[in-house]
């Protein structure tokens, strides 16, 4: 990973994932704060060994109990949310180091939420069960997209849907996202009178959201990560006699981040 540009201060100006991930599913019922969980509630199980070996750190979470209560057909359903949030702090530290401390932010985050229902999902009539899961998934998508937009991520779109089999053998419904975040212009002082400017551009952000049933509960897990490598090679001529080249290459690997995130999500239970 190379980082020749000591002025890349705009890369980390927005912690675009922090709000999106830490909010988890907090907004599904319009709640803004959590309460003490009641008996029987439990956070999702995450692959701690995998996270620790990958440079991830637990950075927070949230409990909402109850998160919502409503009738679905003949059944009255209440739900509690337990959310855990992790950040790839190793990646953040590496980017900061390679940019000489100018790029700071949360670049790669993961969250997992257990939605515990009362009555248990397995005890809800089959005709109503699908409606409950569908509603949780729809609201999870809506909240996820809204939180990204709230922190300056633009052009948020669902880029694909599908399914994957998680490690417990359950089938998860997956929504993939594509978005962008503004990278503003960078100005370098060349002399007291002249400046060297690199024009702004859009940088891709990718995301993933999975929803599945497990052991009478609903699990929601996902995250967001850099959707492209940040790489620029710019030459300017501040005077007729001088040519200046700036080479920025953070060596980011979106495909590897995507596969890592999928592996972590699959291990949630």
Describe this structure in words.
- Mean pLDDT is 78; it is low at 1-39.
- The chain contains five helices and eleven strands, in the order H-H-E-E-H-E-H-E-E-E-E-E-E-E-E-H.
- The protein is elongated, with a radius of gyration of 21 Å.
- The chain is of the alpha+beta class and 269 residues long.
- It has a single domain (18-178, 207-227, 255-266), classed as 3-Layer(aba) Sandwich (Protein Transport Mog1p, Chain A), CATH 3.40.1000.
- The strands form three sheets. It has a seven-stranded antiparallel β-sheet with strand order 1-2-3-9-8-5-4, sandwiched between helices. The chain has a two-stranded antiparallel sheet with strand order 6-7. It has a two-stranded antiparallel sheet with strand order 10-11.
Structural domain count: 1
Distance between the termini: 34 Å
**What is the residue-mean pLDDT, rounded to a whole number?**
78
> What's the CATH class label?
Alpha Beta
Could you say what the CATH architecture is? Answer: 3-Layer(aba) Sandwich
Classification by helices and strands: alpha+beta
The CATH topology: Protein Transport Mog1p, Chain A
Number of strands: 11
Largest sheet: 7 strands, antiparallel
The spatial strand order of the largest sheet comes to 1-2-3-9-8-5-4
Protein name: Lipoprotein
Organism: Haloferax mediterranei (strain ATCC 33500 / DSM 1411 / JCM 8866 / NBRC 14739 / NCIMB 2177 / R-4) (Halobacterium mediterranei)
């Amino acid at each position: 990973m190379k980082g020749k540009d000591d002025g890349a201060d705009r890369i980390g100006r927005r912690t675009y994932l922090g709000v999106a991930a830490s909010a988890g599913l907090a907004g599904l019922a319009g709640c803004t704060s959590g309460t003490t969980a009641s008996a029987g509630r439990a956070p999702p199980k995450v692959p701690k060994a995998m996270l620790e070996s990958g440079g991830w750190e637990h950075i927070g979470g949230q409990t909402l109990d109850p998160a919502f209560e409503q009738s679905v057909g003949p059944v009255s359903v209440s739900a509690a949310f337990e959310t855990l949030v992790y950040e790839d702090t190793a990646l953040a530290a590496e980017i900061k180091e390679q940019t000489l401390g100018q790029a700071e932010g949360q670049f790669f985050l993961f969250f997992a939420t257990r939605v515990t229902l009362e009555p248990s999902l397995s005890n809800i009539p089959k005709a109503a069960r699908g409606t409950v899961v569908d509603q949780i998934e729809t609201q999870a998508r809506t909240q996820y997209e809204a939180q990204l937009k709230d922190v300056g991520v633009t052009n948020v779109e669902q880029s694909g849907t599908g399914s994957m089999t998680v490690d417990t053998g359950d089938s998860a419904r997956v929504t993939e996202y594509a978005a962008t975040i503004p990278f503003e212009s960078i100005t370098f002082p060349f002399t007291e009178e002249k400046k060297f400017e690199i024009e702004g551009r859009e940088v891709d952000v990718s995301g993933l959201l999975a929803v599945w049933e497990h052991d009478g509960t609903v699990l929601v897990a996902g995250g967001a990560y850099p959707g492209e490598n940040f790489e620029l090679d710019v030459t300017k001529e501040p005077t007729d006699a001088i040519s200046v080249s700036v080479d920025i290459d953070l060596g980011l690997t979106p495909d590897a981040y995507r596969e890592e995130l999928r592996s972590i999500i699959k291990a949630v239970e």
